[in-house]
Amino acid sequence: MSLPAILLVLFALLLVGLLAWALRQPSHAIRPDLDVFDALRQSRHSARMSHVLQALQPEDTEYLRESGQVALMQTLRRQRRRIALGYLDQLQEEFEMLLEISRVLAVMSPEVIGMEEMERWKLSLTFAAACAFLRWKLRLGLQPFSGFTLLSNMAADITRQLDATTTRIAEVAVRGSEHASPGHKNIDGL
Amino acid sequence: MVEPLQLQTAAWALTTALELALFVLFVRRKLGRTYPAFFAYLVSVILQSMAVAALYRTPNLNKLTFWLIAWGTQGVVVLMRSLTVVELSRRVLRRYIGIWALARRLFLGVAAVVIAYDLALSKGDWQWMILNGVRGLELAMAAVIVTMLLFARYYRAPVNPLQRALAVGLCLYSAFYVINYSVLERILQQFAVLWNFLGMFAFIASLLVWINGANLYVEAEEVAAPPAIPAELYGKLSSEVNSRLILLNRQLIQFLRLEDRSQ
């Protein structure tokens, strides 16, 4: 059998696998009552990144080694890793909420931008992979942490950008609600 | 011991009986109005069975005529099945105007690429072109059904049990056809009767899935279309949400780098 024919067969098998996956119940509950603008107003865990990074700084625990309390230092670092894991969960939750919002928007729009949807799909794949990878690294208890100061500053910068973006979203939403045509059925009172 | 030919005849009889049972079920439940393309496909399959049975009973029929009639009817059946796939996708996604418009373009792209790839394997030989064209169509149908179900899953579009059954039956049959045609019939010609039987078995499985789906069908009120927002609002909000997703992603990647540096 030729290579192109083998590829066709593999593609057919892949389709059967994808069919089985697509028919599974989604792992996350559907949120039919999701209020887009209310969800966008909710507190953002990403805003706390600089605090989490600060807590993970090695300098925060290094003095315990110097005073001979290595066991305590290790306990503290373990606890902080647990906090980082919790933070990661919240980050993922926020990401999924944004995806849910974007889905609701796409479903309600009479016109959907393919590139935007594709971009979001790629982002969700990257995020899911990076999240799983990082979670395992933290669970395996790899030794942190050095070179935090620079990254902490970068994180603060991203948090500022996130805030600005969220503010813009809120502004656009408010403008949209003001300009929504009377003939349209609107979302949540908009 | 049962002869392979007797087994095949029995499978043929069973297939026809199941086709007729599904037909009766569709008529009794008035599903023909809701799924006219599928109903037409079912009728074409029954007519094809009758036509082929008549051909086998016609003496002195030359091989080419037989081949042309058999593949001609097969062409009609495959065309009807393609229309069924379009109908099914439309019924699942049509409530979401924007999503349906995007999905339509994607389905056309997927189908065109798959069919073009398969036709390219024929290298200009018209006989192979017909056979490969049918295989390409079958694969394209399976690809479109899977893409439609992935869309429905991603955008949380409801798919009722009958729609799921139709999708599963159509997709599995098409995928099996491609595998059967590509691997089994070409490599293992000596087992042609067995592979024919397996092909029929795949269709019997599809028929059973459809019958089960039609049995489970409950006439429910159409799910209302979601409330609409202006396209411009979607465009603006969507790109802003994407920016926020990108930033969150970047934040996560920072975390990863952080871990790497700490090694």
Highlighted features:
heterodimer, A: 190 residues, mainly alpha, 7 helices, 73% helix, disordered C terminus, B: 263 residues, Rhopdopsin 7-helix transmembrane proteins, 0% strand, globular
Model description:
The complex is a heterodimer of chains A (190) and B (263). Chain A is mainly alpha-helical. Helix content of chain A is 73%, strand content 0%. Chain A has one domain. Chain A is flat, with a radius of gyration of 23 Å. The longest helix of chain B has 32 residues. Chain B folds into two domains: 218 residues, Up-down Bundle (Rhopdopsin 7-helix transmembrane proteins), CATH 1.20.1070; 35 residues. Chain B starts with a helix and ends with a helix. In chain B, helix 1 packs parallel to helix 8 and helix 4 runs antiparallel to helix 7. Chains A and B meet through helix 1, helix 5, helix 6 and helix 7 of A and helix 5, helix 6, helix 7 and helix 9 of B.
Provide the CATH top-level class of the largest domain in chain B: Mainly Alpha
Largest sheet of chain A: none
Biggest pleated sheet of chain B: none
Give the oligomeric state of the chains in this entry, treating copies of one chain as homo and distinct chains as hetero: heterodimer
Q: How many β-strands of chain B, per DSSP?
A: 0
**Radius of gyration of chain B, CA atoms, in whole angstroms:** 23 Å
**Order of SSEs of chain A:** HHHHHHH
Q: What is the arithmetic mean of pLDDT of chain A? A: 69
Distance between the termini of chain B: 70 Å
Counted by DSSP, the helix tally of chain A is: 7
- Rg of Cα set of chain A: 23 Å
Helical content of chain A stands at: over 70%
Q: Tell me the fraction of residues in β-strands of chain B, as a range.
A: under 5%
What would the principal axes of the Cα set say about the shape of chain B?
globular
**Which structural class matches the secondary elements of chain B?**
mainly alpha
Order of helices and strands of chain B: HHHHHHHHH
Q: Uncertain segments of chain A of ≥5 residues (pLDDT<50)? A: 143-156, 180-190
- From the N-terminal CA to the C-terminal CA of chain A, the straight-line distance is 60 Å
What is the CATH T-level topology of the largest domain in chain B?
A: Rhopdopsin 7-helix transmembrane proteins
The number of distinct structural domains of chain A comes to 1
